[in-house]
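User: Hi! I have a protein structure encoded as tokens and I'd like to know what sequence might fold into it. I'm fairly new to this, so please keep things simple.
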């Protein structure tokens, strides 16, 4: 099946398409009608199509009536959603989350390799991605196939009680995850997203854009080549963030035309945009670009941001390597300095085993720091994290030895022994391969990024006199914490 360059149906056409197609146009230009017309291509067996309508109504909760209609009438969902204001949209999303869980567990049952990867659970592979979009609540698997919302204070709340923006982003995240779970190399996979930015804060729009790009890039090449997202929006933060992907193109829908021509996003557009799609609202809120190395760090700091209830003034920007981080630091300095009178950004790097190196010199407006430990996961053994799970270093050692006695032939038993023999709690060694074992020994059922992030976010302005060995302040460094607003200067 050849890769397509054009999508045409019902006399409507989108030409020169890419994997990620942004379509803009004034109100009344007919973007929604245009999308609905082309979405009719779903009747062609060569296509798998999902259409996400604007003004997605309802609450994210399971509903027996919705489930019944969806089961007995295969066309009911499509008819319901081919409207500008789709009633009960989010109830269908809730059903799809349950189906996602069932699909994951079915795959787990059939794939011995997946079962051997202990860190990969439905919570880590699916729910963590959804929760990464949320600031004040999280979605948890409760009993069986039931889900519930929990606040940062561990209070259980109903789906009707969460904000419209949170409800919106949960539903959209589930729909996107479900679409990509169903994609295959045997069909052309097409996702229409009509104004996904509705009800979303500009910063959350940027986060949603990164979420979509990550899902697209995670597909196998054979599937990715046949997967196309079409997104209609008025949002400049969303467009700016999507433009960071080399898969992105942009087209304009005019009211008197049934054809949209897509044009690849140019470097000129990216350079003129705020730093990496950084929404201006971040500067209004005094939150600065925060360059970090790796997705693990991003999840930790996103959790810390949520837990801090606004005290943490950062907007995480992800780099893929040390060299990439340096490129971002230089680009950030150049762009921010040309736009703002008082530019500022922060960069945090791993120590990677050498704790004798001091923090790096700034690059213009970019202040650069290093962790005082090998990597962010080493914070699992700080005093605050141990205390949070009811342990101290002595009891952890005891529990670790018990774990070793029960798992003498485990593939990482030697790594655990090496870690325990380290005189400095292993803060200067790589523990990435055994971090899930550390969490097991800690007796926590939460993801390690959540555990560490919450304790960072709880820091209450420590002073110099409070730098205790193996504390979070010790591992992160007081100058860095002062810069991000979690310690007094």
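Assistant: Happy to help. Inverse folding works backwards from shape to sequence: for each of the 489 positions I chose a residue that suits the local structure. Here it is:
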């Amino acid at each position: 099946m050849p890769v397509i360059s054009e999508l045409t149906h019902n006399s409507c056409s989108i030409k020169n398409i890419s994997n990620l197609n942004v379509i803009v146009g004034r109100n009344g230009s007919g973007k929604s009608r245009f999308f609905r017309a082309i979405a009719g291509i779903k009747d062609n067996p060569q296509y798998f199509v999902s259409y996400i309508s604007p003004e997605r109504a309802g609450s994210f909760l399971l509903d027996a009536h919705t489930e019944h209609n969806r089961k007995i009438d295969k066309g009911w969902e499509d008819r319901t959603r081919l409207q500008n204001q789709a009633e009960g949209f989010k109830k269908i999303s809730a059903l799809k989350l349950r189906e996602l869980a069932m699909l994951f567990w079915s795959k787990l049952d059939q794939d011995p390799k997946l079962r051997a990867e202990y860190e990969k659970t439905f919570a880590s592979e699916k729910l963590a991605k959804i929760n990464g979009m949320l600031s004040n609540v999280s979605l948890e698997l409760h009993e069986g196939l039931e889900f519930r919302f929990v606040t940062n204070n561990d209070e259980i709340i109903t789906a009707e009680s969460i904000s419209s923006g949170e409800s919106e982003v949960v539903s959209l995240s589930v729909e996107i995850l479900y679409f990509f779970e169903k994609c295959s190399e045997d069909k052309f996979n097409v996702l229409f997203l009509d104004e996904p930015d509705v009800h979303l804060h500009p910063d959350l729009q940027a986060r949603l854009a990164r979420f979509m790009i990550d899902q697209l890039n995670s597909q196998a090449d054979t599937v990715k080549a046949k997967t196309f997202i079409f997104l209609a929006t008025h949002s400049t933060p969303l467009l700016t963030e999507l433009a960071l992907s080399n898969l992105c193109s942009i087209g304009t829908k005019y009211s008197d035309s049934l054809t949209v021509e897509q044009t690849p996003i140019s470097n000129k557009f990216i350079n003129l945009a705020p730093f990496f799609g950084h929404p201006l609202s971040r500067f209004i809120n005094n939150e600065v670009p925060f360059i970090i190395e790796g997705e693990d760090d991003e999840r930790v700091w996103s959790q810390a941001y949520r837990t801090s209830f606004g005290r943490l003034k950062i907007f995480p920007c992800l780099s893929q390597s040390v060299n990439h981080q340096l490129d971002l630091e230089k680009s950030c300095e150049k762009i921010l300095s040309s736009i703002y009178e008082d530019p500022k950004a922060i960069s945090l790097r791993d120590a990677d085993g050498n704790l004798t190196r001091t923090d790096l010199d700034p690059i213009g407006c970019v202040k650069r720091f290093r962790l005082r430990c090998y990597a962010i996961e080493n914070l699992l053994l700080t005093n605050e994290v141990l205390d949070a799970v009811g342990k101290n270093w002595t009891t952890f050692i005891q529990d670790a030895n018990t774990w070793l006695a029960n798992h003498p032939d485990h593939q990482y038993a030697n790594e655990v022994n090496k870690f325990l023999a380290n005189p400095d709690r292993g803060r200067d060694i790589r523990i990435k391969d055994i971090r899930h074992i550390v969490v097991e020994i800690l007796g926590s059922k939460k993801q390690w990024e959540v555990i560490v992030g919450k304790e960072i976010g709880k820091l209450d302005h420590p002073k110099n006199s409070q730098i205790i060995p193996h504390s979070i302040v010790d591992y992160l460094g007081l100058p860095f914490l002062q810069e991000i607003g979690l310690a007094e200067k």
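A useful reference point when you look it over: Residues 271-284 have pLDDT under 50 and may be disordered. Feel free to ask if any position seems puzzling.
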